[in-house]
Amino acid sequence: MAAPTAYPMQPPVAPEPAEAQSIKSMLEIAKILAIIFGILFLLGGIALAVFVPFGIIIGGFWLLIGGVVAIIVYLQMDSIQQKVNTRQYEAAKTQTLIWMILGFIFGILLGIILLIAYIKFDPLINWQRSQMQGGAPPAGFVPPYAAPTPAAPVATPPPPPAAAPAAPFCSKCGRPTTYIAQYGRYYCYTDNLYV
Question: Is 78 strand, coil or helix?
Answer without folding.
Answer: helix
